[in-house]
User: Fold these one by one.
Assistant:
Number 1:
Amino acid sequence: MLHKIDSGKIGPFGEPMEEAVRSCVHCGFCLAACPTYGELEQELDTPRGRIVLMKEVLEGGLEIEDALPHLDACLGCLACEPACPSGVEYRNLISPFRALAEDQRSRPLGEKVRRRLVSWTLPHPDRFRVAARMAGLVKPLAGVLPRSMRPMMDLLPSPLPPEQKLQERYEARGEHRATVALLAGCAQQVLDPDINAATIDVLTRSGVEVVVPREQTCCGALSWHVGDHRAAKEYARRNIEAFSKVDAVITNAAGCGSGMHEYPLILKGTDDEERAAELAALVVDVSVFLERLGGPGEIPDRGEEVTIAYHDACHLSNGQGVRSEPRRLLQRIPGVKVVELCDAHLCCGSAGTYNIDQPEVAASLGEQKARAVMDSGVMMVASGNIGCLTQLKMHLGRLDASIEVRHTIQILRDALNGI
Ligand code: SF4
Ligand code: SF4
């Protein structure tokens, strides 16, 4: 796309943003892949429309406030990237744009308070646990609470699972094959700590030593995707210090893995850019790591046939290009058949804080995904992201569907234990 963006004036993000705009040829192949186009049916709520809006703001021909409603409605699901024949790296445009816009936009007081609350609690498991417990206590009053708070309430499991303290090191069992560091995640530790327990169990029994650095923090993805560049940089820097001397950094939440892969962009133009790239090269989803190892070893045959639907978390499939490995891992379990969901490319509507920021679109996408799972006729659905799992549980529950929702690694751990 021709443009008059002066990338030099934008700062370190100028070059990747300008490149993303330039490589878009306006063909529209991405439109059908975009969930918000399906929901809102407007050109300005498509990847192509959003690229034009950002280009015009960057050129100085459009007020930022006119573009923001359509950019805020973007899930950041990145379904537009694999659909694009020109290789437009939309991620290099939307998050940097949100970071630049944050200094220029004004928000209503209620929204400011909500954002502050989210950024103060969600990235900190201890604070989030306390907040979630308090929210659980007032859940029966949800009907009289502000509308903006209800999606947060609905997403919380009831009761909250007990806290699981992680050790700093877990020895490999059997022959030592690798040493990895685990990103423990923030919300995941509170909402479903068993995912980390399952990850550690499967890795250690596969001969992998697991370290869980105490100094690690939130990955920063949540902050980055809502335009809080200062916080995202801080988290990225602290994690660069925390993770070192390992063969890989394992993530088991798609959003966190994808966020850590974006560290070089988050720290672009700073002294830490090179170290960010070195760390990002070590970051790998647990499913990919296990497949590279040749699988988790022999899985007992329970003599049962089980059909499992696999839901692609956007930040695993689109964000990290990980599609086949989780499916292959599940298919290693004797008797397991993996089925695909209808409209599998569509985001489930979870997308970080999207449930809170854009509740109507999030709810519609969540219900569609839950119905797709029900239509597949399975008794269990697997995914690799805590946000998707929480969203699926909530919407399947609302539809009275008794379908188990599990992380891929939990299913694998249970199969290894003959459960
Ligand atoms: S498919 Fe790619 S090149 Fe075509 S309009 Fe969409 S982003 Fe632009
Ligand atoms: S990131 Fe997702 S919602 Fe945003 S433009 Fe791309 S496909 Fe649409």
Number 2:
Amino acid sequence: MPIKLKATCSECMTMHVADLEYDQEDIKCPACGHAMRNLPEGELNEIETAIKKQKTYNIVALIGFFIALLCFALWVLNQNPDLYSFGRKLPPDYQPDGMMRSGVMFITCAGLLVTLVFGILGSWKRYIVEF
Ligand SMILES: [Zn+2]
């Protein structure tokens, strides 16, 4: 699988997205034809591993965000018994459940924290090849 990397040409300063293959001879600028030898295999391997890790972090961040969103929606719904009943008949003395409400809010905050931390981890490093 090729590794997608941003590459900047030192001759004409054009930036393009290079699909680097392991067995590729060199990296070539599509604008002016300037070329450099491809990165050594070890380096390519390192970059590929790092990018895969970042993708995983980003997925975790996204999942955290959706969980937070869901729990926040529940929290808002719970505040309004008419909505929260989903058509059911609630007892006339219905009170929003305080424990449930703080629990859901806690999960919302935890989910957002997960999103924050993994979002930062997932975008901490950017690889740009200059040649
Ligand atoms: Zn160029």
